[in-house]
Amino acid sequence: MKLSVDRERCCGAGMCALTAPEVFDQDGEDGRVLLRDPQPPHRHHAAAREAAAICPAAAITVIEARQT
Ligand code: SF4
């Protein structure tokens, strides 16, 4: 899994950091998302997917690794 965030879209709602705090953080200055781990370990995948799904600004993109 690879993650990317669009800080321009982010509205600083903080849902991602609450849902997957190991993966996402919030900038202490502007409140927008910070990506702590763009390639999180498997144990954090479910939370990262959920964070992307609930982000009100659709600012989180999840690229699933291809199954080979
Ligand atoms: S949930 Fe979305 S809008 Fe809210 S801080 Fe995270 S990336 Fe930004």
From TrEMBL:
<comment type="function">
    <text>Ferredoxins are iron-sulfur proteins that transfer electrons in a wide variety of metabolic reactions.</text>
</comment>
<dbReference type="InterPro" id="IPR017896">
    <property type="entry name" value="4Fe4S_Fe-S-bd"/>
</dbReference>
<protein>
    <recommendedName>
        <fullName>Ferredoxin</fullName>
    </recommendedName>
</protein>
<keyword id="KW-0813">Transport</keyword>
<feature type="domain" description="4Fe-4S ferredoxin-type">
    <location>
        <begin position="1"/>
        <end position="29"/>
    </location>
</feature>
<keyword id="KW-0003">3Fe-4S</keyword>
<dbReference type="GO" id="GO:0009055">
    <property type="term" value="F:electron transfer activity"/>
</dbReference>
<keyword id="KW-0479">Metal-binding</keyword>
<dbReference type="InterPro" id="IPR051269">
    <property type="entry name" value="Fe-S_cluster_ET"/>
</dbReference>
<keyword id="KW-0411">Iron-sulfur</keyword>
<dbReference type="InterPro" id="IPR001080">
    <property type="entry name" value="3Fe4S_ferredoxin"/>
</dbReference>
<keyword id="KW-0408">Iron</keyword>
<dbReference type="GO" id="GO:0005506">
    <property type="term" value="F:iron ion binding"/>
</dbReference>
<dbReference type="Pfam" id="PF13370">
    <property type="entry name" value="Fer4_13"/>
</dbReference>
<dbReference type="GO" id="GO:0051538">
    <property type="term" value="F:3 iron, 4 sulfur cluster binding"/>
</dbReference>
<keyword id="KW-0249">Electron transport</keyword>
